[in-house]
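Handout, page 2. Input:
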Amino acid sequence: MSELAYELIGGERHRHRGIEHAHPHTGPHEHHDGHGGHGHSHGLIDPSITRSREGLRAVLLALLVLGLAAVAQLVVFIASGSVALLADLIHNAGDAATAVPLGMAFALRSRRAERWAGLAVVAAIFASACVAGFEAIDRLAHPRPVHQLGALAAAGAVGFAGNWLAAIIRTRGGRRLDSAALIADGSHARADAYVSLAVIASAVVVAAGVPIADPLIGLAITLVILRITWQSWQTIRHDAHHHGH
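Output:
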C-alpha cells in the first residue's frame, strides 16, 4: 500500500528492531470533531487544551474511584486491625494523592510538568512501600489479634475493584494522550489490584489459624510495591529520553 493511502486512512508507520511496517487504525477512536483521533478542532480550540481536559478528566475520575474504595477500606480497617489491609489502604491513599501533581501538569498543559508529576508518582509509590514495610515489621515484633475476617476479605475485594477500574481509566487515557506519567500511574494501580487480592489471602490464612501470616503478607505487599516503584521509574525515564529533557 502506498504512503499516500496510509496517510488517507489515518494509519501509522512504526519501526521495530530495524523493520518498518505500518498499522492502519482499525480500533475505536475518540473523535472530538469528526476530523481525526487526535483532538483536532475547527481551529477554535487548541489541541493542547483538548488534551488537558481529557487528562484532567481521567485523573479526577480515577481519583474519585480510589477515594471511594479507600473510605470503604478505612472503615473495615478500624474494625479489623489487619496490617495487610493497612498496607493496602496506605498504598491506595498514596496512589490517590498522585492525582494532585498529575492533574496540575495537565492543567498547565506542560510535558515537562507531566514528567515531574511522573517522578512524584514514583516517589509516592516508594513512600507507601516504606510505611507498609515499617507497619508489617512492627506487627511481627508486637503481634495483635485480627478481627472481622469476613469484612477484611470484603475490603480486599473493594480494593481490587477500585484499583482495577482506576487502572483502566488511567491506562486508556495515558495511551490516548501519549502520557507516560498517566500510563505509569495506571500500571501501578493495576498491580495494586493484585496486592488487594493478598488482603483476601490474609483473611483466609488468619481464619485457618495462622495469624503470623498476616504481617508476612504485609511484607510481601511491601516487596511488590518496591517492584512497581522500579517499573514506574523505568517508564518515566524512557519517556524523558524519548521526548527530550
